[in-house]
Amino acid sequence: MTEREAAPAAASEPDSRSRESDSRSRESDSRSRESGSRNLVMRIIAAAVLIPLAVAIAYAGGWLWATLVTLAAIGLFVEWLAIVGLAGATRVIVPGVTALAVAGLCFAIGRLDAALIVLGIGFVAVASIAPERRNWVAAGFLYAAAAEIASVLVRLDSVKGFAALMFVLLIVWVTDTGGYFAGRSIGGPKLWPRVSPKKTWAGAVGGFAASLAVAGGFAAFDLGRIGPLLMLSVALSVVSQLGDLFESAVKRRFGVKDSSHIIPGHGGLMDRLDGFVAAVVLAALFGFLRGGADGVGRGLMVW
User: Fold this and answer.
1) DSSP 8-state class, residue 263
2) Of 127, 175, 204, 290, which cross-links 299 as Cys (Cβ 3.0–4.6 Å)?
3) Where are the domains of the chain?
C-alpha cells in the first residue's frame, strides 16, 4: 500500500471508532429510558396496591394499624442491619425484633407505658450484645422504634387521629411524587450529588409546592385552619426530603444501592418509608407537645 492509500485508511479509523462509540451511547440511552419506563410502571402498580391498603388499615386504626406499624418497624430494623453489614447477626436481630413485636402488642392493647419500657430494654439489649458497629446497631433500633411509636401516637387520637395521619401521609406522598416528576421533567442542578446523584433542586421545589396543595385541600374541607396547615406542610415536606437524603447517606456510607427488593419498583421498606419516618416523628413530637400522648392528632389539626 502506498503512502497516499494508507493516509485515508488511517484517517477513517478514528471516524469509525467515533461512530461505534456514538452507537453504543445511543443504545445505552435507549436501554436506560426503557429501564426507567419499566421502573415507573412498577412504581405505579405497587402504589396502586399498597396505598389503598395502607389507607384502609389507617382508617380502621386500633390493633390493625398497630400490627401494620409493628411489621414495618421490624422490617426497617432488619433492613438497617443489612445495610450496615450485619444481615446475619442473629444475636442482634432476635432481641431487636422481639422487642419491637412485644411493644407492638402493648400498643395494640393500649399499654403505651409498657411499650416504651419494652423498647427501652430492647435498645439496651441490642446495643450491648452487638458484635460490632454498636453505634450503627443502636441507631437502627432507635430509627425503627421511633417510627413505631410516632405512627401509633399520631393515629391514637379517636377524634382527629385519622385526619392527622392522612395529612402526614399525603404530605409525604405528594412530596415524593411531585419531586419525582418535577426532577425528571425539569432537571437542573443536583440537590446533593455526593449523596443522591439523581435528586435535583427542581424536584425538591416541586415536591415542596405539591405539599402546599395538600394543606389547601384540608383547609377547603374544613379539616383545619389554612395558616397552621401551611406551616405544618412546609415543615413536614422539608423534613420528609431530609429523611430521604439521610437514608441515601447511610446507604452510600456502606456502598448499598437499595435497602432490599421487597417492593417492586421501590426497593425496600426503608427506600419507601424514609420520608414518612422523618415526617411522622416530627408530627408526633409536635402534636405531643400541644395535645399530650392521647391528643397528638388534635395537637396537629386543631388550632
Assistant:
1) B
2) 290
3) 50-156, 158-303
Q: For residue 278, how far is the Cα from the chain centroid?
A: 8
The count of C-alpha atoms lying within 13 angstroms of the C-alpha of 129, restricted to the half-sphere facing its C-beta, is 14
Residue 185 has what pLDDT? 82
Reading the block at residue 151, the C-alpha cell is 405512627
Does residue 123 contact residue 145 with C-beta atoms inside 8 Å?
yes
**Residue length, the chain?**
303
Nearest-10 crossing angle of helices 90-108, 62-83: 160
DSSP secondary-structure letter at 85?
Answer: T
224: three-class secondary structure by DSSP? coil
Residues 230 and 217: their CA atoms lie apart, in Å, by 10
Average pLDDT over residues 50-65: 94
Q: What is the mean pLDDT of the chain?
A: 87
User: What is the C-alpha separation between 145 and 74, in angstroms, rounded?
Assistant: 9
Q: Is 133 helix (H, G, I), strand (E, B) or coil?
A: coil
Q: What confidence score (pLDDT) does residue 20 get?
A: 56
End-to-end CA distance of the chain: 90
Q: Which three cell numbers stand for residue 22?
A: 456514538
Q: What is the pTM of this model?
A: 0.84
**Band of residue 118 on the pLDDT scale cut at 50, 70, 90:** very high
Indicate the helix (H) or strand (E) that contains 200.
strand 196-200
Query: HEC string of 32-70?
Result: HHHHHHHHHHHHHHHHHHHHHHHHHHHHHCHHHHHHHHH
Is residue 9 packed enough to be buried (19+ CB in 10 Å), middle (13-18) or exposed (0-12)?
exposed
237, 203 contact by CB (below 8 A): no
